[in-house]
TrEMBL record, chains A, B:
Alphabetical list of SUPFAM superfamilies matching this protein: Winged helix' DNA-binding domain
Domain HTH marR-type intervals: 26-76
Keyword line: DNA-binding, Transcription, Transcription regulation
CDD domains xrefs: HTH_ARSR
Record organism: Flavobacterium anhuiense
InterPro entries in the cross-refs: ArsR-like_HTH, HTH-GbsR_regulator, HTH_MarR-typ, MJ1563, WH-like_DNA-bd_sf, WH_DNA-bd_sf
PANTHER family listed in its UniProt record: HTH-TYPE TRANSCRIPTIONAL REGULATOR MJ1563-RELATED (PTHR38465:SF1)
The protein, known as: HTH-type transcriptional regulator
Listed transmembrane segments: none
Protein origin, superkingdom: Bacteria
GO MF terms held by the record: DNA binding; DNA-binding transcription factor activity
Annotated family: Belongs to the GbsR family.
Amino acid sequence: MEFKEAKNKFVQTWGALGSQWGINKTMAQIHALLMVSNEPVSMEDIMEELQISRGNASMNLRALMDWGIVYKEFKAGERKEFFTAEKDLDELAVKISRERSKREIKPTLKILKEVSTIEAKDSAEEKHFVDQTTKLYDFVLKADNMLDKMTEFNDNWLGKLFIKMMK
Amino acid sequence: MEFKEAKNKFVQTWGALGSQWGINKTMAQIHALLMVSNEPVSMEDIMEELQISRGNASMNLRALMDWGIVYKEFKAGERKEFFTAEKDLDELAVKISRERSKREIKPTLKILKEVSTIEAKDSAEEKHFVDQTTKLYDFVLKADNMLDKMTEFNDNWLGKLFIKMMK
DNA sequence: AATAAGTTTCAATTATTTTTGAAAGTTTAA
DNA sequence: TTAAACTTTCAAAAATAATTGAAACTTATT
């Protein structure tokens, strides 16, 4: 396989994976493209490589920057903006974890708390509901805390965790 | 908040969360409904509670069974089928992890292996590509193995992991 | 073996999400 | 202050994904 083909395959694969995880294809593709570029890339180049419109590129770059995993760069003497991706994988994973926790897990916990604390009356049905949602709340809370702890190791957290696990 | 309202809120929330994770809304809602039901539920009842068609219910129940997190049950003397969800959260998490690993992570690893092993020539661009995709391969492989190890504790793996982490 | 009870399938429809492209907005430089 | 270079916004269009519903299929009962 030659370089261009490999790069394309990687970008396509990352895009498809994104879709399966609720991230839009273009956003994942732009991220993939920036990850494997050794130099900052302009919007023009992104549009060209992925064959997408200016609006699409602009919106998805904005979203990636909101996630904190893509940065704007300025080149001396150049008017236009360039973009780079977070390339450190530990850091990338930490940022994605934090964002998803903030955006999805925390609000879900809030709802779980609410629904699990209703007055359960005496029917088996209601008791089971309260019991199950309470368990779910505890589980999700514990998982969320764990993720936090894991990524707090910061540098090479995955490796460090692996060692802890083996002991 | 009263029971019916709480139940509905839970089902809606779970459905919305599903969408954000690439799982279709109805599938997540059916799962939510079954999780908090203390008795097996018939297809009729699911259709009625979620206001969905028979075809939709059938297809999504099939998908949930393929994931191994919903089971068919038969009641003595009843012709129709009933459904229950895996209610043990450790077990549920293990099954979801295993399925996603099999369906998404493993195929991704295969592609990462392919693209990271191209002949890198001498350009900085190509070298960076190989370097970055190799790192990605290693990272994803390690994360996948870790998930496997974690869920191998099986019973109360999250709790056990928590204790290990604290040491 | 005919009928009834129940389930699955899938082409067509509907709903949702993504993408486009051009107008409006912003910034830099002359 | 004007014009050029570039970016953002958003309504409309296109693409994708989910849903319906009725026919086909399966299984149990008489």
